[in-house]
Design goal:
This protein has a single domain, classed as 3-Layer(aba) Sandwich (Rossmann fold). It is built from eight helices and ten strands. By secondary structure, it is α/β, with parallel strands linked by helices. The structure holds 2-phosphoglycolic acid (PGA). The site of 2-phosphoglycolic acid (PGA) has 7 residues, from loops.
């Protein structure tokens, strides 16, 4: 794992964004694995800026998101479908038909998970996957547990995740379940960029980088991936032994 520590979220957004912009410049049909949450937003802002400046086009790019809430209407302001439109897709020239997010409202959840895995298998895994990390070490919505999930599945969200994300649900009605790529799906990405900022992430970041590889910290599996770059601010890096 390569660890990079920056002063500001904007610097992280520019550095992570440049990696993605270069991938898109080299391959106009690049396959991007995308994430929601606050962490990737400055990266998306950088990419929108590059598009507006005429530096890159997403016309041939396809996008595959990590996860989506269950039992939340697709057009709800808190769905990840809406999040991606508001924070990226509506501001660039990507073809909406090439943007993929698991359907958290599918009548047959198992079939939807199999469909999503088959879609990602069919492209041989994404070229680059952006990740945040939960305070409990989750990536996607892979919550701490006894094993690493191979493929996309339905998960019951843990209390710490509900606590972190319920700030966005003003009516207090935060979904309790989500569909998420499994760890196996995430690990099939050729390259991984993980972004974490703020002191609340410091323990999870330490467990991910310096802890044993264990499903108790799902992000720790990234130690075994050949191409992971972790972008941190100083607060998120503060518990790392090597950064002292
Ligand atoms: P955040 O979420 O980027 O909003 O902090 C990350 C996550 O829970 O995976």
């Amino acid at each position: 794992m390569e660890i990079k520590v920056f002063q500001t979220k904007e610097q992280i957004g520019a550095a992570a964004g440049k990696i993605i912009a270069d991938i898109v410049k080299n391959d106009p049909a690049a396959k991007l694995g995308l994430a929601t949450g606050a962490s990737p937003v400055p990266t998306y802002r950088y990419l929108i800026g590059q598009y507006e400046a005429g530096e890159i086009s997403f016309r041939g790019v396809s996008a595959y998101n990590l996860d989506e809430y269950c039992d939340l209407p697709r057009d709800d302001e808190n769905s990840y479908y809406t999040f991606m439109r508001r924070n990226l897709f509506d501001h660039i020239d990507i073809d909406p038909a090439n943007t993929h997010i698991p359907d958290g409202n599918a009548a047959d959840t198992d079939a939807e998970c199999r469909r999503y895995d088959a879609l990602i298998d069919s492209i041989g895994g994404v070229d680059v996957q952006i990740l945040g990390i939960g305070t409990d070490g989750h990536i996607g919505f892979n919550e701490p547990g006894d094993s690493f999930a191979p493929g996309t599945f339905r998960i019951k969200l843990h209390e710490s995740t509900i606590e972190s994300n319920s700030i966005y649900f003003k009516d207090g009605k935060m979904p309790r379940y989500a569909l998420t790529m499994g760890i196996g799906t995430i690990m099939s990405a050729k390259k991984i960029i993980l972004i974490a900022t703020g002191a609340a992430k410091a323990k999870a970041v330490k467990a991910m980088i310096e802890g044993e590889v264990s499903p108790a910290c799902q992000a720790s599996i990234l130690q075994t991936h050949p191409d992971v770059t972790v972008f941190l601010d100083e607060a998120a890096a503060e518990l790392l032994t090597s950064e002292k």
